[in-house]
Design goal:
The protein is mostly helical. The chain has 39 helices and 2 strands. One of its GO terms (cellular component) is cytosol.
């Protein structure tokens, strides 16, 4: 094979390295410099390890390129320098991690004024991250000696690459003991408190967002690490600091600052939502309907967090009623005055998380404030905000699945259950959920009948109605829900029952129709094929294979009847291993008239096949053209091919006769049929 030969041509880089005056930029201009570096090209590595080359590579990363350069190539050398330094070559990692001068030069990038160049910051963060991963002890020791490191991280936290560097410092160090030392060091530097201080209305929006994201990731990383190392004697100091009462109070004070800065409010609520997480989030709108307060929760929520939020629930309720001022928003479907806004959306997310905790005191506070009623009003007011509709649907589903608040040892009746589950009672009787669903549905049908557009919340409303029906029949609170529906006015009950069997049932039936059916797709008249002329029937294997192809079903039936069989291309030694599972399904029945066909075959043999006489003369030319006499019957049978046969040789006549023989045999009344039933 061609790959057995050494066809590798030497790289142009090797040719350049033979020159004594070759420069670093000349090598970086070569297209394959990165490939050669990762392939451990000895000459190239030795050149890059020179002190002046390493210093130049670091300089490219941390120094702003000239402004007068073409924008297309301005960041060419910084980019290539970053790729060379992060190509994970052990010799380069060793030199960078062990030489103090190179580390100092790299570290000097943080000394620049804000804001940092985001692209250069990403190069810097990438290089330092791989050094932390490959040389954790040396790099952490170096950073600890820099007393202003945490100050500089906080200063530049508005740059996303610097935030990533902070998180890399927590994730790239795998050994438990060194990682614990890093956590203790960052905790001593009050990293948590300083990040929380950034989430303040006086700070910039980028700093709000990155500080909030950093704290959220610290919470998740700490909890994941605690699950992996359950026998760890030392708790995570960063998570412990973040869950302290004074830190939560500081976050809440930032939310309810008199300036009502939406960016600060949303960022702080994101941190609270992460603290209330009982498991890793999957995707927006996904709810695992198991009772809130579930016993199989992955994470435990600190009670101080819940108590601090409960004390400020009335303030959160006020944010629903009076969010930060936003200008009127004109949209294609109307004017929003005011729009929902990110603040109210995140407050509803917070209420959803609190409902999942199913704390009795928190539920009672929500009932007294009528927060559930307010978010229902918003659901029907903002017709086209599906983010809002999703959160309201989650809240209702959680309430319907909430467990009773009575003690386990108490025996409760159906009436007692309905009274004890205050949230459910509040939802059905005070918030009038059933009545509002019926009114919204009728309003939508009336609007559509007049030629109007279907309301944007109808899909979510259908799911909410189905959730109620499911809870009535099979839900964990089915008895309670049935009792509460009985307490509704008789007219409402009758409307609800009619709605469930008619409108809702018809909608569900439409929604469950298969988008693709197995019906045959009929071709147009221009493309129709006469299957009788082609010899294939409508239900033939070819038609079935084409139907399978249209349905994209790669079944065994499709593989056997369409395309090539792999056995045709297999080696002879492998054919014996082929499975014969379907041999028993083949029908070998032969419908033949043995006597008639045998007589025909013998007659043809006598007429057309000449016997060679071994005792004949040696001078006789067996290939000489000779006239062959036929019987009248055979002449009539083969008259169609008599013209061409006169010019053919004996062997050609013999081949043609055999072909005619088989054609004649096919036209006989008794045909040989082999049915392969698969």
């Amino acid at each position: 094979m061609f790959w057995k030969f050494d066809l590798h041509s030497s790289s142009h880089i090797d040719t350049l390295l033979e020159r004594e005056d070759v420069t670093l930029k000349e090598l970086m201009d070569e297209e394959d410099v990165l490939q050669e570096c990762k392939a451990q090209n000895r000459k190239l590595i030795e050149f890059l390890l020179k002190s002046e080359c390493l210093e130049d590579l670091v300089s490219f990363i941390i120094e702003e390129p000239p402004q007068d350069m073409d924008e297309k190539i301005r960041y060419k050398y910084p980019n290539i320098s970053c790729e060379l330094l992060t190509s994970d070559v052990s010799q380069i990692n060793d030199r960078l991690g062990e030489e103090e001068s190179l580390l100092m030069k790299l570290y000097s990038f943080l000394l620049n004024e804000s804001p940092l160049n985001p692209l250069l910051a990403s190069f810097f963060s990438k290089v330092l991250s791989i050094l932390i991963s490959r040389k954790p002890e040396q790099i952490v020791d170096f950073l600890k000696r820099k007393h202003d490191f945490v100050d500089l991280i906080i200063k530049h936290i508005g740059t996303s690459a610097i935030m990533d560097l902070l998180l890399r410092l927590l994730t790239c160090i795998e050994p438990p003991q060194p990682r614990q030392e890093v956590l203790n060091w960052l905790n001593e530097e009050r990293i948590i408190q300083r990040l929380v201080e950034i989430v303040h209305p006086s700070q910039d929006e980028d700093r709000h967002s990155n500080a909030s994201q950093s704290l959220c990731e610290i919470i998740r990383l700490s909890r994941d690490q605690m699950l992996q190392v359950q026998n760890s004697s030392e708790p995570d100091p960063l998570l412990a600091s973040l869950e302290k009462q004074e830190i939560i109070e500081q976050l809440l004070s930032n939310i309810f600052h008199k300036d009502k800065n939406e960016s600060a409010i949303v960022s702080a609520i994101q941190i609270l939502l992460t603290l209330l997480e009982t498991r890793r989030q999957t995707f927006e709108g996904h709810v695992e309907i198991c009772p809130p307060g579930m016993s199989d929760s992955t994470y435990s929520v600190n009670k101080s967090v819940l108590e601090a939020i409960k004390a400020r629930l009335s303030s959160f309720h006020e944010l629903l009623l009076e969010p930060p001022k936003k200008s009127v928003m004109k949209t294609t479907w109307g004017v929003l005055d005011p729009p929902v806004g990110n603040t109210r959306l995140n407050v509803i997310r917070l209420i959803s998380s609190l409902l999942q905790m199913n704390a009795s005191s928190v539920n009672q506070e929500l009932i007294e404030l009528n927060s559930i009623g307010v978010i229902l009003d918003m659901f029907f007011k903002y017709t086209w905000n599906n983010f809002l509709h999703t959160q309201v649907e989650i809240c209702i589903a959680l309430i319907l699945a909430s467990s009773l608040e009575s003690t386990e040892n108490d025996t409760v009746t159906d009436q007692d259950s309905a009274e004890d589950n205050l949230l459910l009672r509040h939802l059905f009787l005070k918030c009038q959920l059933i009545e509002r669903i019926l009114e919204a549905w009728e309003m939508n049908e009336k609007k559509q009948a007049e030629g109007g557009r279907r309301h944007g919340y109808m899909g979510h409303l259908t799911r909410i109605a189905n959730c109620i029906v499911h809870s009535t029949d099979k839900g964990p609170n089915s008895t309670v829900v049935q009792q509460l529906i009985k307490e509704l006015p008789e007219e409402v009950r009758e409307r609800w029952e009619t709605f469930c069997t008619s409108s809702l049932g018809e909608t569900n039936k439409r929604n469950t129709v298969d988008l693709v059916t197995t019906c045959h797709i009929h071709s147009s008249s221009d493309d129709e094929i006469d299957f009788k002329e082609t010899g294939f029937s409508q239900d033939s294997s070819l038609q079935q294979a084409f139907s399978d192809y249209q349905m994209q079903q790669m079944t065994s039936n499709f593989i056997d009847q369409f395309g090539f069989n792999d056995e045709k291309f297999a080696d002879q030694d492998d054919i014996g291993n082929v499975s014969f599972d379907r041999v028993s399904d083949i029908n070998f029945t032969l419908n033949t008239n043995e006597s008639g066909n045998l007589a025909l075959f013998e007659a043809c043999c006598k007429e057309r096949i000449q016997q060679f006489d071994d005792g004949g003369s040696d001078e006789e030319d067996i290939w000489e053209e000779k006239h062959i006499a036929f019987t009248p019957e055979s002449q009539r049978r083969f008259s169609s091919g008599s013209t061409d046969s006169e010019e053919s040789t004996d062997s050609e006549e013999e081949d043609g006769t055999k072909q005619d023989l088989f054609e004649s045999h096919t036209n006989t009344e008794d045909k040989m049929e082999v049915d392969l039933n698969e």
